[in-house]
Amino acid sequence: MASGTLTIDLDAIAANWRALDRMSGPGVQTAAVVKADAYGLGVTRVARALARAGARRFFVAQAEEGAAVRQALGPGPQIAVLSGHMAGDTEMIQDLDLTPMLNSLEQITRHLESLPGHPFGVQLDTGMNRLGVEPLEWQAVAPILVDAGPELLMSHLACADEPDHPLNEAQLRTFHEMTDGTGLPRSLAATGGILLGPRYHFDLTRPGIGLYGGLPHAAAIPAVTLSLPVIQTREVAPGEAVGYGRTWVADRPSVIATVSGGYADGLHRTLSGKAQLWDGDTPCPLVGRVSMDLITVDITDLPEVPKSLDILGPNQGVDALAEVAGTIGYELLTALGARYSRRYQERPA
After folding, report:
1. Is the pTM higher than 0.90?
2. Are 154 and 183 contacting, i.e. CB atoms less than 8 angstroms apart?
3. Count of beta carbons in the 10 Å neighbourhood of residue 91
4. Which of 54, 160, 173, 234 has the highest CB neighbour number within 10 Å of its CB?
5. H or E element in which residue 165 lies
6. How many Cβ atoms are within 10 Å of 341's Cβ, its own excluded?
7. Tens-place pLDDT, residues 74-131
8. How far is CA 255 from the centre of its chain?
9. Cα–Cα distance between 189 and 198 in angstroms, integer?
10. Residue 274 annotated to the active site
């Protein structure tokens, strides 16, 4: 096969959820964020594994993503839609029993008029200036909305991955000001907020990237391995170049492996000439440019030609590779392409 193999450890994802659940505390419910196809890892299998681990509430970005989770899990678990109640979503929200997190006065009006009595939550803007009802708007509508019984009042921290950033305390203070005394369930913390400690946990936490082995949850169990097959090898003499633009020139007799994978598969072009692939515990430098479908790797020092090389695995996790690419683990995970053969690991229950 010419496609890479993306191995997804469902047991690791479940173990990461249980660890974050313990950090959240005994009186706090722990949800699971499975938006963007479970951060690129396949929402059907991932959501089912998380449900078996104990998750009963799931967060997605869009109603269409909620439909996929409902199909995977069936009736019962709550599926919250972070984009809220958009025009055209009413029938899907009702038929699939989705819970929109309403973000604006327009959405609040739309939901209460089109689906009276249907569950909803409210997202509040406490300083990120992205989604959510702003403080002055909330003051105006809170008396009506609180009586309507939202399932959840939530907000999102902008700098939770920087524990000492002053905006964390400022957002916590604003969230208290907007929600204290309502008597309603509250949620402020995603993965980074969980790590900030109990003051940020409230009634429900919403881990996302930490489930999938990414920072800021440094203790997370790695959940993915990406192996790229070697398609061809060639001997390159000193002075000969490899790849587009002649950006790498051999300074010794070299053996170059061409492996399947490129920027069409989510392996950023910025990895060119900087990343390493691994044969077991032996690093092999990526040489030349990453192209659309292919990467070239210097395997001169290996005793024999491997069948494949790992670009993600125990020696190089998503955040380490993302740092080389000049991005973050979130982007790397969610960009992993559709051409990979996906293999799921899970011990029988």
Report:
1. yes
2. no
3. 11
4. 160
5. none
6. 12
7. 999 999 999 999 999 999 999 999 999 999 999 999 999 999 999 999 999 999 999 9
8. 37
9. 10
10. no
